[in-house]
Design brief:
By secondary structure, the protein is of the alpha/beta class. It folds into 3 domains: 6-52, Arc Repressor Mutant, subunit A, CATH 1.10.10; 83-192, no CATH class; 210-346, Glutaredoxin (3-Layer(aba) Sandwich). The protein is 49% helix and 12% strand. It contains 14 helices and 8 strands. A 6-stranded mixed β-sheet has the order 1-8-7-4-5-6. Strands 2-3 form a two-stranded antiparallel ribbon.
Length: 347
């Protein structure tokens, strides 16, 4: 028998815990699930569970993130279409996941039922989640703008996501309420409302980028938008805590190729929440629009802090906001503080 390395053993145990936890959360719901039962199902000790996950809520978020990231992707990407068609396709993919009045109380439906109550439980999760929803609105808005250039459409995306999240909550409380076709039609019609969506040429608060000359040696990371392993190259790399996650848009609007690196002071619990939020949006976006041929935007969840350290940020928190500009494999400029993303992109 081949002896596993310590890292391989940890990875195997983590996978066993996730599988056991998924079954327990699906059967009992988050509140009634027991760590001891999960440990028994995984054939591990309670201590082994906690060595992989700092708490039950962190484990719950990790289970949902793992499921979202493993969801099947379209075999044939959709052809590029108009913005209304993209938004309608996105909404159709969203409402297709909602429970119907005729559905039984299936385990998969119960599995995600406690997500928002747990997010709302305290400010520790609520504030990052608000920023992650902002990130999702930006991502959807950028996809719509590819189909209708010349107009910022993040406000439209915000309105659409508000409508769809509301539909999800009503479907959980009152399955069958609302006509799915009407929800899709309402979302597509948002493009014609003329929602004001101005973007300032310069952020109201901005720092100054400082020249630098450091070799850029980033570790390989996973792009949450594609699920592919990437090595961030030339462009702007933003290092953003989860209280400042949406600030990467400043670099995007400045026209840079952007790698948005999300960091947190609580990687055990908040990193899987970040992965879940982006993967959940990606699952619908993949069914609405073909990914851009050139990856002008990547999003990475840097739970270990290794990518941030490669950018020179060795201590991270949820309030971190920093950015570096990379040219020819070298860091040529860096900025920290409010407006850092804009400063690095326009240096």
């Amino acid at each position: 028998m081949v002896r596993l390395s310590r890292a391989e053993t940890q990875e195997r145990n983590r996978a066993r815990v996730l599988a056991a936890a998924r079954d327990e959360f699906a059967r009992r719901g988050f509140r009634d699930a027991k760590i001891d039962v999960i440990a028994d199902r995984a054939e591990l000790t309670r201590g082994a569970v906690y060595s992989n996950f700092p708490g039950k809520r962190a484990l719950y978020f990790a289970v949902l993130a793992d499921l979202a990231e493993r969801a099947p992707r379209p075999a044939t990407p959709p052809a590029d279409a108009g913005a209304a068609d993209v938004l309608a396709a996105f909404a159709r993919a969203w409402v297709a996941r909602l429970p119907l009045a005729t559905d039984s109380d299936a385990e998969d439906a119960r599995l995600a039922r406690d997500l928002l109550p747990e997010v709302l439980a305290d400010d520790h999760t609520r504030r990052p989640f608000a920023q992650l929803m902002r990130v999702n609105a930006i991502l959807l808005g950028l996809a719509l703008e590819r189909a209708r250039p010349g107009r910022r459409l993040v406000r439209v995306a915000e309105a659409a996501l508000t409508t769809l999240h509301g539909a999800s909550q009503l479907a959980a409380a009152a399955p069958g309420f609302g006509e799915p076709f009407d929800i899709v039609t309402a979302c597509a019609a948002l493009l014609d409302l003329g929602l004001r969506d101005d973007w300032p040429a310069v952020p109201p608060i901005t720092t100054q980028a400082q020249p630098a000359d450091t070799r850029w040696q980033p570790p390989t990371a996973v792009d949450l938008l594609t699920g592919d392993a990437v090595e961030p190259g030339d462009g702007v790399v933003t290092i953003l805590g989860l209280h400042r996650a949406s600030a990467f848009e400043e670099a995007v609007r400045a026209g840079a190729d952007v790698t948005a690196v999300l960091v947190t002071s609580d990687p055990g619990e908040l990193a899987p929440l970040a992965r879940l939020a982006v993967a959940d949006l990606r699952g619908c976006l993949d069914q609405a629009i073909t990914p851009p041929r050139h990856p002008r935007l990547r999003i990475v969840c840097d739970a270990s802090g290794e990518l941030a350290a490669a950018a020179g940020i060795t201590a991270v928190s949820d309030a971190t906001e920093a950015a570096v500009r990379v040219e020819g494999g070298r860091i040529v400029a860096r900025a920290e503080g409010f407006g850092a993303c804009h400063a690095a992109a326009t240096k």
